[in-house]
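Database export, one record per block. Field names are fixed; values are copied verbatim from the stored entry.
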Amino acid sequence: MTLLSQKTTVVVLLSTVLAASLAGCATRPLPRQLVAVHTQTQRSDADLLLMLVDQQRAVVGRADVTLKTVAGDRTYAGRTDDCGEAHLAHLPPGDYVIDVRSSGFKSPKSRLTLQPGQSVKMMLELKIDMENMEGGPTLTEQPLVETDTSQLGRTFSSRQLTDLPHR
């Protein structure tokens, strides 16, 4: 099994376990498009509800979210909950860069403009970081054929032989 296929197997297993453990979050259907939805009110500030998913559309919980003004003078931080959602409220209108950090995923940066009174709902898809999975779990498998020796048999102890079922 090649290193790439081992990493792929690990990613699939981790996504499956994560999806199974977050089954309570599955009561809400995920939107089919990665589109921001805007609503206007008479407020002077703005809100952002950010949902993070992976490539299989499973939610990504416990990710760090940073919202920084393009000018770099203000930073707002949050963390996604177990359902992959982070809510940043009472933000001043302006241009922002969204930075997301989660173990095992590439850190995407997205731009966002918030208008006064806007409540933005946005979903970001995180890509798996295959290059930096060295520290992650690895799977090993036993070979079906022993190629280092010419031995064809196996030795059994007398205890193993006496423990065999009788007819």
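Remark 1: Strands lie at 37-39, 46-53, 64-69, 75-79, 85-91, 94-101, 109-114, 119-125.
Remark 2: Residues 20 and 58 are 10 Å apart (CA to CA).
End of record.
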